[in-house]
Amino acid sequence: MRLLTLIGQRVAAAIAAMRARVAAERRARQLIVVNEIGQALAAAPDLLAIYRIARDGVRRLVDAPVFGISLLDPQGQTITTAFMAEGETELDVRQIPPLAHVPDARSGRSRAIAAARPEIIPDLTPTGAEGNAIVAREPRARSALYVPMVVEGRVIGLLEVRSYRRAAYTPEDAALLQTVATQIGLALQNARLLQEARRLAAFNAEIVNSLAEGIIIMDEAGYITFVNPAAAHLLGYEPQELTGQHQNAIIPSDQRSIVQAAMRRRRRGLSDRYELELLRKDGRRVPVLVSDVPRFDEMGRFVGSLAVFTEISGWKQAEEALQRYAERLQALRALDSAILAAQSPEEVACQALRYICRLVPCSGAGVLAYQPATGEGVVLASQMNSEIRIGPGFRLSLAGVDWEIEASRRGEIIFVPDLLAISPSPAQRALLAAGVRSYIAVPLRVGGELQGWLAIVSASPGMLTTEHAEILQEVSAQLAVALYQADLRAALAAQEARLSALVERLPEGVLLLDGDHRILLTNPAAQEMLPVLTDAHPGDVLTHLAGRPLEEFLVAPPGNGWHEVVLSHLRRTFQMAARPVSGIGPSGGWVLVVREVTQERFLQAQLEQQERLAAVGQLASGIAHDFNNLLTTIILYAQMALEHPRLPSDLSQFLRVIIGESQQATQLVQQVLDFSRRAPMEARPMDLAPFLKELTKVLERTIPESIRLRLVTGAGPFLIRGDPARLQQAVINMVLNARDAMPQGGEVRLGLSRLTVGWEDQPPLAGMEAGEWVCLEIADTGTGIPPEVLPHIFEPFFTTKPRGLGTGLGLAQVYGIVQQHGGHIGVETEVGKGTTFRVYLPLLVEEVSLPEPAAEGLLHAGRGETILLVEDHATLRAAGREILQRLGYRVLEAANGWEALEVYAAERVDLVLTDVVMPGMSGAALVEALRRQNPEVKIIAVTGYGEDPEVEHIRQAGVLEVVRKPFEVERLAEMVRRVLG
User: Is 416 in contact with 422 (CB distance < 8 Å)?
Assistant: First the structure.
């Protein structure tokens, strides 16, 4: 048994060794075939030959009755069949549609491409559609192998083979065909390069037939890829001898640094021209002028350079002239670019000078702006060496160079070879001091108007030539237009900036809509208003504003051109206007302006109310004047009747009632005068804080206990110039009104605070000026004022109280008192919640000391003095005559000013007692006429008004006293006696 086991082991080892030898031999044969395929592919003349060589070679390696090559498009979207053969039959690939590449496919061609590794399909039956779709007719293949062709790390297509047997391919087959697929891919790539080379060869031939200059193309490493016959002939070579050689083969060692520097410039994208010596094949050197430009591929990568060169011998001077002309053209083109990119005149000038200094050898160059208003030239930009001390902003006086300016206006060039050779001027001395010895100035003109000069300067005489002037002249016209356009752009930009700032700061909202009513732009004010008026935002289509269709606002309304909308729930009012504009899309657009006029409407209503009250006050004042005349007559006659010695006692009581009722009527007249601002004022500095504190104590004793009176004051002092009696009356009237509005009780709050109104602030009430104000606030918790009543509360005789319970003069009197003090009054109310009155009075900054009160005069009877009584009201005149005569005076009468002048001229008069307001000649005019006759005349004025411009006028005219109607006998007697002395 041991022997048999040993024999079995040796037999098994022999079989394994034989199999290994067979596999190694097969592997060796396969490698030989692979090598032969590679050699054959390398020698293939075209694509079809590559396909056939690949087909035959693959069939020597694996079972491949069906063989195909497909290519992946550059975008990686489709797989297109390039070659397909079944047996010896080559199929028409034009009949095979491309397949879509699916990168995330689980198997098949797309899987092999996406994974970049072979894909084995052991059985095509489950995926027959995918596997066989590439063959026009139904094949008999049962298994497949797809091998990607990978070139330089990128899959360019597939090598695919199929067998009629299932599971015909092994991983070893896949690995073997991967090598072949790589060879095929390289061969295809080389074939494409060959086609490009052939196209390039055709291009070279075309160049050869059309150009006589030498041309050499080099790659990025300096290897020559193309030489035209002219270049080869110049260097003594055939073109093919130079192709593929490094550039150092034709460049002497001492010239290589020039070429290396040029290559560095090419890599930066720069083109230039330079002289170089090349090495001929026979060893001789040939001087050439090289024009070298960089070459970049479609991705912007540097791929080499193209050099055009010509032998300099015999043509050097012509080439130098051509080079200078080319540089001029280049400068002009560069200046064009600078003009397009420049944003300011200074930038345009700087860009131009960069190229001027390259074209013209000089000590410096500058652009000078002409300012005829100041008679100066101002340097906009300059490029100077250290010898010249002229920089931007340098000012040059042009006094004494009138002929140069006139010549410049005609377009003539100013050429000064030596400044010391011309007559001295401020400009010459300034240039010499700056280091300038000679200069050329070319005028810059636009539309015949002189804008300035383009100038070059030299620190030495005789260095500048007429050729330099020609170069400057070539640039001047272009530069002048550029500077003019830059000025316009700068002005336009400044205007646009100002307009933009204006629109941004406008209190009105501005919206720009396109033809579809889409909101393109809004200013800050519009951004604040939009949420109130609409749900649309910038970028949305605007369809409605304030609940109304937008189209309503795009049609101009009659009248002022503004649509007005009132948002009642917000108590806000807006005005809108729209105007069409062009230049916004094909159908134009709209500018919509929205402004809020809520405060304006409120102030307008207040102003209208004030104007209405002023008119009513004027009427009331006139009535009060006439009423005072009547009351004065009644009171005077009643008082005279009381003095009758035989007056019955019952009549005496009646007369006292008449006098008492007349005095009550006087109080009503006082209220009317307060409203009309005609009541007399005794204003003095006063602090409202202690004033209100004392007044509150008085009010607490007069209002019911069910009403709480509260005083709240802020930081004082609260100094004003006021009449305490008038202000007390005003506060009492408002508090009593508050009491009447709270029949069930409540609270009245009196408050004091200070307010500063700036010049740009919106005042709380219309007409308030900027400054410091004291705010007196009276607030109640009563029934409030109905909206229909509110506009009339300050009108005299307007009342909502039952007949007999109110005169309607309380708030009218308050209004007049506030106006007399230079103040303003406003009211806020809500029905059922209460009312707040706010009185604003000017704060007194500098306190004025009070004058000492005049001593009381004593009542004396007359001594027979003559009094001229001037009064147009006959009854009152008669009463006055009777009173004065009873007092012991001789009385002369006049019904008007003209009669008074006649009487005064004819009689000796000790005192004139005249009314202020009379028809024809006023009291003031009479006083002035009397004082012209007698400057020492004594005059007392009588008025039915309070403080009035006419009263002030008559005071200034020289009256000694003013007595106001109605007055009592004692008051008149006292004043007359005091004036007469």
Answer: yes
